[in-house]
Amino acid sequence: MNLIVDIGNTSTKLAVYEDGKKLSVSRINDLSCEELERELSGYEIQRAILSSVKKLPPYITDLLFSKIPLVHVLSYKSKLPFKIEYETPETLGPDRIAAIVGAIQLFPEAEILVIDAGTAITFDYLLSNKFSGGNISPGLTMRLNALNTFTDNLPLVPLSGKFSFPGRNTQDAILAGVITGVTYEINEYIRTFKKKFTYSPDIVIDGLNYILDYNAT
Question: Which of 30, 62, 95, 116 is catalytic?
């Protein structure tokens, strides 16, 4: 069995795979050793891959290395099914690497635009099986926080899909501006790339599972 640990800026995603089949997926806001052990109870994990956009908590790595025979920490130096032509590969987030690999599984040999919307929104391009670059943009929550932080009078509005358009009050004006702004931004990237797109909510953890198998051989 494979364990996938994907540590993001706001939460951690855990998944267990066996023979390419996803057995479980869970999301944890505050990862601890106790929580990790509880999530893994009942599984005989033989291999694990760890991806983190933050500094790795030592207690997590210690736990994984002490209990699992093979643990792979993802980086740009990992064995990957594509070539990285990014000028600063050491700054390339492992979540972006994993998303690209997940997309390759879905669309082998295709030219791909990968859009991953989280704390930040990333737009990554794979052309001729080479990753040459991509763009990074603020995510929804970050934009809402910025409007509140860098102005004197705009409130911090909680993210919600319910708002009038155009906004008929300040809260709706902020939500309409942020959400439709992101929607237009994404649609323009897709239009510019001129390719059909597929929604895959687990593309990062699917990619991580593939990378783990790819590096274990």
Answer: 95
